[in-house]
Write a structure and sequence with these properties.
35% of the residues lie in helices and 16% in strands. It is of the alpha+beta class and 188 residues long. It binds flavin mononucleotide (FMN). Flavin mononucleotide binds next to strand 5.
């Protein structure tokens, strides 16, 4: 699969099959993150691979009803970092979230290429997961990436979530976010 195909095909889908993700596939996801760029090659990400019932149970228990669909997934990557582990530069440029986000982005594309859904979420009880999995207090639990093979059971999805399964949520007009040469001059 070409990169443009992976970008186009990647979706934050919510219907998962319960079949496990093989270890070799998990290794590929890890490699995609390891090779990602980071400020000064600091590699500030720390990731817990949750696939056994103990760690999955702790994560699943932290999910609100709206993210209940994630309880069907057989693999959840718990992505953490901390301020001190990456560049801290002028004008509030603290890079730990940026570098970690880049690594997750690369991993999402690799997952897509291998036929997986990899869906990052922010809706969870971070403190409960940190306690349950022994994550140090000075680390930020940035995202959970809900991973697995696409499935057909949509019983846990709301109407809005069901719609998003079939149609990618709309993006803003390009000129809202992209400027031509000067702040505020819309790219067209
Ligand atoms: C930082 C972040 C947090 C997100 N949190 C949630 C979440 O808590 N629950 C959820 O169902 N989807 C979550 N999503 C998925 C987005 O809703 C989804 O990416 C967006 O609607 C665009 O859809 P697409 O990725 O399929 O193109 C999150 C995505 C990101 C990047």
């Amino acid at each position: 699969m070409n990169v443009d195909e992976a970008i186009d095909k990647r979706r934050a889908l919510r219907a998962f099959d319960t079949r496990p993700v093989p270890d070799g596939v998990i290794t590929e996801l890890i490699e995609a993150m390891r090779l990602s760029p980071s400020c000064n090659n600091n590699q500030p990400w720390r990731v817990i691979v949750a696939r056994d019932q103990g760690s999955l149970g702790a994560v699943r228990a932290s999910l609100p009803r709206g993210n209940g669909w994630a309880t069907r997934a057989p693999l959840i990557l718990v992505v953490c970092s901390r301020l001190e582990d990456d560049c801290k530069l002028s004008d509030r440029r603290d890079y730990f979230l940026f570098s970690t986000g880049l690594a997750v982005g690369e991993m999402l594309l690799r997952a897509t290429e291998m036929g997986l859904t990899a869906h990052p979420i922010a809706g969870y009880d971070a403190l409960a997961i940190k306690e349950g999995l022994g994550i140090p207090a000075d680390h930020v639990l940035i995202t959970l990436v809900i991973c697995g093979y696409p499935g057909t059971d949509v019983s846990m999805l709301s109407d809005k979530q069901l719609m998003a399964e079939v149609e990618r949520p709309a993006r803003l007009p390009v000129g809202d976010n992209f400027f031509d040469g000067r702040w505020g001059r819309p790219w067209s």
